[in-house]
Write a structure and sequence with these properties.
It contains 16 helices and eleven strands. By secondary structure, the protein is α+β, with helices and mostly antiparallel strands.
C-alpha cells in the first residue's frame, strides 16, 4: 500500500475517532460462520490480514512452559507437501508474508499479500493451519533458538526486570508461568507435545479475523472459508482463571554487575471492559506518558535521575497492570524510587485542568501515530475485536476520552495508586540496596 493511501486511511480512521465516519468497517460472515471485520480499499493491490486463535502461552502449564510459542513458530516451517525451505520459497514467489506468534491469551497470525495472488496466499495459510509438518529437524532448531534467545535475554537487565515482575505479580497464576524456568521445560518438550498443542489450539471456535485492503466482502468470505474452513469447531477455549491482585508491597532485588539498574514498579490496573478504562488512560498519560508527564519532569528534568521513565496500562483478558519503567545509576536508585513513590502518592490528590486538557488532546489524536501501514490498521481492528469493543468504537473514542473529568482521574488514581499493592523489581547493583516501599 503506497504512502499516500496509507495516510488517507489513517486520516480516515482519525476522523472516525473524532466522530466522522470516513472509514467503513464492515462485518463479514462467511457461509461457514467465520466472522471478520473488513476495511475495503481498492486503490492499491495489497491485502493485510490479522487473526488469532483463543488460548495463548498462559495455557502452557508448569511442565510445558514455552510450548505454545514454540508451536506457533513452527507453523510456517513447512506444511503439507512443502518442507520449511520449499514453503518459504513459495511465500517469496507469491510475494506473501505469513507469520505466527503467541501472547498470553492468544496465538496470533498476520499475512500480507498481493491481491492478484490471493488464491495462492490463502492456500499457504490453509496449509499452515491445517497441515503443519512439524519436522523433527526444524523442531530441534527452533527449540535451540528459543533457548539461545532466553540466554541472551538473561543478559539484559530490563528484560530480566520485566520477567521477574510478571513472575512476582502473577505468582500462582498462569500469567506468571512463562516468566521463569522456560529453558528447563523447553528441553523436556517432545515433538508429540507440539502436535497435540496444535490440535487443541487450531480451532475456529475462537477465531478472530480482520482484513484491510483490496478485497471485497464476498471474496474475503470465500477465502476465509478456504483457509480456515477445514479446522474443527470446538468449544471456545476458556480464558485463564481470575486473578487475585497482591495485597501487600513487595520489593525484589536481583544483582547484576552493571553500572545502571533497571527498575519496574507494577500496580494492579484495569481490565479493558472496565468503565474507568478511558479515565485510566488519561491518568497514565499524565503520570508517565511522555516528556511533559509528571514522572518525567520530576525524575529526569528536575533531578537527572534517569534518562527516561514511562508509565502505562497493560491489559490481558483476566488482569490489568499499571507499570512504571525506568533505569538509574546504581548510586541513585534509592533516590529514584523515593521520588517515584512520592509522585504516585501526590497524584492521588488530583490533576490540574491544563494537565487534563493536554492529555485528552494528545490521546484523541495519538491513534494515528501507530497506524503507518495497512497491516497496523488490520492489527487495530483485530485488537478491537479481541477486546470485545463495538464496531463503532472508533466513532466514539474521542467522545469517551473527552468526557473524562478531573474527578474521574482522581478517583481512578486513588483506586490504583495504592502503596499496599505495589511490586518493585530492581535488577542491577544499587548502592545500599533498593529502598523498600
Amino acid at each position: 500500500m503506497n504512502a499516500a493511501r496509507v495516510l488517507a486511511l489513517v486520516l480516515g480512521l482519525v476522523l472516525a475517532a473524532s466522530g466522522a465516519e470516513a472509514v467503513e468497517v464492515t462485518e463479514v460472515t462467511t457461509p461457514l460462520g467465520i466472522k471478520a471485520w473488513l476495511v475495503e480499499d481498492k486503490s492499491t493491490p495489497v491485502v493485510s490480514l490479522a487473526f488469532s486463535f483463543a488460548g495463548g502461552s498462559a495455557r502452557d502449564g508448569e511442565t510445558q512452559k514455552g510450548l505454545t510459542s514454540l508451536t506457533a513458530t513452527l507453523l510456517t516451517d513447512g506444511a503439507g507437501p512443502f518442507d520449511a525451505q520449499a514453503f518459504k520459497l513459495r511465500e517469496q514467489e507469491a510475494s506473501v508474508s505469513l507469520n505466527f506468534g503467541a501472547s498470553l491469551d492468544t496465538v496470533g497470525g498476520s499475512m500480507r499479500l498481493l491481491s492478484a495472488n490471493r488464491d495462492e496466499a490463502f492456500d499457504l495459510l490453509k496449509l499452515a493451519v491445517t497441515a503443519p509438518r512439524f519436522d523433527a529437524d526444524r523442531f530441534e532448531q527452533r527449540r535451540a533458538q528459543a533457548i539461545a534467545q532466553l540466554n541472551q535475554a538473561d543478559q539484559r537487565p530490563a528484560t530480566v526486570a520485566q520477567r521477574t515482575m510478571m513472575a512476582t505479580v502473577f505468582a500462582g497464576h498462569p500469567y506468571g508461568n512463562n516468566a521463569s524456568g522456560v529453558r528447563e521445560t523447553l528441553r523436556g518438550l517432545s515433538l508429540q507435545d507440539v502436535r497435540q498443542r496444535a490440535v487443541s489450539l487450531l480451532d475456529r471456535g475462537g477465531l478472530v479475523v480482520a482484513a484491510v485492503g483490496d478485497i471485497d466482502a464476498a471474496e474475503l468470505a470465500r477465502q476465509l472459508d478456504r483457509a480456515f474452513g477445514g479446522l474443527p469447531v470446538g468449544p471456545v477455549t476458556p480464558p485463564a482463571p481470575d486473578w487475585t491482585p497482591p495485597v501487600k508491597p513487595r520489593t525484589v532485588n536481583i544483582e547484576r554487575p552493571v553500572p545502571q539498574s533497571s527498575v519496574v514498579i507494577a500496580l494492579p490496573g484495569l481490565l479493558r471492559a472496565d468503565p474507568d478504562w478511558h479515565a485510566g488512560l488519561v491518568m497514565a498519560h499524565i503520570l508517565g506518558g511522555g516528556q511533559q508527564s509528571r514522572l518525567f519532569i520530576e525524575v529526569r528534568e528536575k533531578r537527572g535521575l534517569a534518562y527516561s521513565i514511562s508509565a502505562g496500562l497493560r491489559s490481558q483478558q483476566k488482569a490489568g497492570l499499571l507499570v512504571v519503567s525506568t533505569g538509574s545509576a546504581n548510586e541513585r536508585v534509592a533516590e529514584s524510587l523515593r521520588v517515584i513513590r512520592a509522585e504516585l502518592a501526590r497524584f492521588r490528590d488530583g490533576v490540574s485542568e491544563p494537565e487534563l486538557a493536554d492529555a485528552k488532546i494528545y490521546l484523541s489524536g495519538s491513534l494515528a501515530l501507530s497506524l503507518d501501514s495497512s497491516g497496523s490498521i488490520a492489527n487495530l481492528l483485530h485488537q478491537l475485536q479481541v477486546d470485545h469493543q463495538p464496531r463503532d468504537y472508533l466513532d466514539r473514542r474521542a467522545a469517551l476520552i473527552g468526557a473524562v473529568k478531573a474527578d474521574d482521574v482522581r478517583r481512578v488514581a486513588r483506586r490504583l495508586l495504592r502503596d499496599e499493592a505495589m511490586t518493585t523489581v530492581v535488577v542491577g547493583k544499587p548502592a545500599g540496596g533498593a529502598a523498600e516501599p
